[in-house]
Every structure is written in structure tokens, then in C-alpha cells.
TrEMBL record:
Transmembrane segments: none annotated. This is Gfo/Idh/MocA family oxidoreductase. PANTHER family: OXIDOREDUCTASES, TRANS-1,2-DIHYDROBENZENE-1,2-DIOL DEHYDROGENASE. Belongs to the Gfo/Idh/MocA family. Residues 351-367 have a biased composition (Basic and acidic residues). Residues 24-144 form the Gfo/Idh/MocA-like oxidoreductase N-terminal domain. Pfam families: GFO_IDH_MocA, GFO_IDH_MocA_C3. Residues 155-271 form the GFO/IDH/MocA-like oxidoreductase domain. InterPro entries: Gfo/Idh/MocA-like_OxRdtase_N (IPR000683), Gfo/Idh/MocA_domain (IPR050984), GFO_IDH_MocA-like_dom (IPR055170), Glc-Fru_OxRdtase_bac (IPR008354), NAD(P)-bd_dom_sf (IPR036291). Keywords: Oxidoreductase. Residues 344-383 are annotated as: Disordered. It comes from Stigmatella ashevillensis.
């Protein structure tokens, strides 16, 4: 059904979503990821999505990118003015982690649907505020987990679901790269830190492969003495205990050679993915099941267009997306517990939560890779 029109203070009436073929998006934040991956994705999502506005605090980005994409650009202080445009039905928030909650709540109260980059926020309370604001205004909220639509990771989910590994028991992962600084990923007041930035991928993968939630976690982190990391950790090592004897461990670093891999071991097989979390390049996989070994790769694809296509369809049909705001909250509470453990030197128990929705192979959407455009006033995060 169509989205119910809000008449609460601070919102306005919009055309019924079902009457629109395309959902109009304002992209909020024009950093490296937004320019390299989000903006080009609209070319592959034009079936039901279109870019109608940009929000940035950088004058050169505003001038160049506004002209390139033929859309108006607003400063952060003009956010409500942007939301007042009738074409803006949804926002894609690509801001520093510490700003996610504020802008999501403001957008929801204005009646706009919210697609927000991970981590959804930096505290469970902020996540709940975002979820509550969207529910109150009857708008959709989606956490931007691109791997929930990516073939290699969804085939891993399928292999587990079909019993190819027997009972999954152990998950181990390494995700790291050499971070260029200055970078918001090393600024504590912006929600920086290796666990928030890339550790969340490992947490999420363990959860969707085990199809379960951890009940206890333990973490170490270290700043290594590197001058790049005076405010946040450079590396972290984590163990998570799941029900029924399942264990997950991972290592993440902003100061090591680029690696993005995970291995899932079961009672009758194992699955290994190389380049598992990356947005660029092919993903290689190896599956050993009951004495037989298969290898293959999934070619590079646009991983952002499927997010837009899925979220827009949910808006048009009045459905809640997978991954929703609660999926984002599930990871945030775990990462927050990992930081608590690292500070205290003690394991942290987690109250059980129930998640009935997980990514499934049916969510896969394929779009060709997009070309990297000319980037304005940004640099790649890795050396």
C-alpha cells in the first residue's frame, strides 16, 4: 500500500508513492564513497530511482557536482529547505557516523524515507531514536548493507542453508588496509575507529552466516604508536560466542596490507571468500563439501544500485526493507559491546534479541560495475 501521509508538525504532504515511477533521492554528504560509488549507482537504478538533490558543505563539490548531475545543491544549514522540495521523497545519508542519527531523524520528521550508510549510528539509543522517528512519520528506514544483495555472499548464505557445510561452527575473518590520513575514520568525535568502519562488516557477516546473534563478546584493540592513530584504535582482535557452540573471530586494521577475507568451517565442509567485503573487483570463493572442492569467482558489479532499487521498491509498495533499521541496531549494539570489552579487558554478555529477517539468496540483484568518475576534493581512504 502507499505510504500514509503525515500531518504532524514539521512534515508535509507528498504525492502518493504508488503514483510515482521513480523515487527521488537527495544524497546527503559528498565524500569519497558518495562520489565514487553512490552517485554513479543511479545510472543503474533508473528503473525506479533518480537523483534530485545533493547536500554538501563544500562549495567546490556543490558547484561541480551540481552542474554535472543537473540537480540543486544545498548546504547542511539548508537541509530542511532541501527536504521541502516535492521531488525529494528519500535521502541517502553518507555522512560521518556521528551525524547519521541527527540527519535521519530530521529527514524522517519531514516525511522523507531514509537510506543510511553503516554503521546506522554509534549508540543503540541513537538507533532507536532513528527507528522511532521513521515509524512515527510512517516512512521506511534501511541500513545500507550492500553485501545483502551481492552474489558471492548470498551464495555463502545459500550453502549454509542447504547444509553444504554440515553445521557451521567457526567463522574467522581478516579485514584491513593502510589508511591515508587525515581521514574522518581516525577522528573520535566523528565516530571514527576501525571497529566502527570495517569491523562492522565482519560482525554482520558472522551473524548472517550463523543465522544467529552473539551472546558474549571479547575484544582487544591497540593504537600501535602510529601517529595516524592518536584518537582511535589502529587495530582490533575480536571473539564472539554464539549459541549452540558457534564461535566467530576476526582481526581488523587500518595499518596493515589490504586483505578482505573470511572462512566459515562446518562439521562437513568449509567456505572461503577472498575480497569478500570489497566494493571493487571480483570475489573469489572456495567451497569444500563432503570431500569435494569447488572454486570460482563472482565478477565485479555495482553493489550500490541494488540497494537503491530495493529500497525504492519498498517505498513504492509500502514494505519494510531487509536490511531495516533493526538490522543496523543489531550490529551497533555488538560493536558498542566490543569497545566496552576492549576498555575493560573483560568479556561482555549481550542480552538476547530476536531477528526473524536475514538476507536470502532471493535478494540478489545484478548490475554491471560503474566507472570511477572524476573525484572532487576527496582522496581514496587507502594507500
Amino acid at each position: 500500500m502507499a505510504r500514509r501521509q503525515s500531518v504532524k508538525q514539521g512534515t508535509r504532504r507528498r504525492p502518493a508513492a504508488k503514483a510515482q515511477r521513480q523515487v527521488g533521492y537527495a544524497v546527503v554528504g559528498l565524500g569519497h564513497f558518495a562520489q565514487e560509488s553512490v552517485l554513479p549507482a543511479f545510472a543503474h537504478a533508473r528503473g525506479n530511482s533518480r537523483l534530485v538533490a545533493l547536500v554538501s558543505g563544500d562549495a567546490k563539490k556543490a558547484r561541480v557536482l551540481g552542474k554535472k548531475h543537473g540537480v540543486p545543491v544545498f548546504g547542511y544549514e539548508q537541509f530542511e529547505e532541501c527536504l521541502a522540495l516535492p521531488e525529494v521523497e528519500a535521502v541517502y545519508i553518507v555522512l560521518p557516523n556521528s551525524m547519521h542519527a541527527e540527519y535521519a531523524v530530521r529527514a524522517a520528521r519531514a516525511g522523507a524515507h531514509v537510506l543510511c550508510e553503516k554503521p546506522l549510528a554509534t549508540t543503540e539509543a541513537e538507533c532507536r531514536e532513528m527507528i522511532g522517528a521513521c515509524e512515527q512519520s510512517d516512512v521506511r528506514l534501511m541500513t545500507a548493507y550492500r553485501l545483502h544483495f551481492e552474489r558471492a555472499n548470498l551464495q555463502a548464505v545459500k550453502a549454509v542453508r542447504e547444509g553444504k557445510l554440515g553445521e557451521p561452527r567457526l567463522f574467522a575473518s581478516t579485514f584491513c588496509f593502510q589508511l591515508k590520513t587525515p581521514n574522518i575514520r581516525t577522528e573520535a568525535d566523528k565516530g571514527g575507529g576501525v571497529l566502527w568502519d570495517i569491523g562492522v562488516y565482519c560482525v554482520n557477516a558472522a551473524r548472517y552466516l550463523f543465522r544467529a546473534e552473539p551472546i558474549e563478546v571479547f575484544a582487544f584493540y591497540d593504537r600501535s604508536g602510529d601517529p595516524r592513530f592518536t584518537e582511535t584504535e589502529e587495530a582490533a582482535s575480536v571473539v564472539m560466542r554464539f549459541p549452540e557452540g558457534k564461535l566467530a573471530s576476526f582481526n581488523v586494521s587500518f595499518g596493515a596490507e589490504a586483505v578482505a577475507t573470511y572462512r566459515l568451517v562446518g562439521t562437513q565442509g568449509e567456505l572461503h571468500l577472498e575480497n569478500a567485503y570489497e566494493n571493487k573487483g571480483p570475489i573469489h570463493w572456495t567451497l569444500k563439501s563432503r570431500g569435494k572442492t569447488r572454486r570460482g569467482k563472482v565478477s565485479a558489479r555495482d553493489q550500490l544500485a541494488p540497494e537503491l532499487l530495493t529500497f525504492s521498491q519498498c517505498i513504492l509498495e509500502g514494505k519494510d526493507p531487509e536490511p531495516d533499521g533493526w538490522e543496523g541496531l543489531a550490529d551497533v549494539r555488538i560493536v558498542a559491546a566490543l569497545y566496552e570489552s576492549a576498555r575493560s579487558g573483560q568479556p561482555v554478555k549481550l542480552e538476547p534479541i530476536e531477528r526473524t529477517r536475514r538476507p536470502t539468496p532471493e535478494q540478489e540483484l545484478r548490475r554491471p560495475p560503474s566507472r570511477t568518475p572524476e573525484l572532487i576534493h576527496v582522496q581514496a581512504p587507502s594507500r
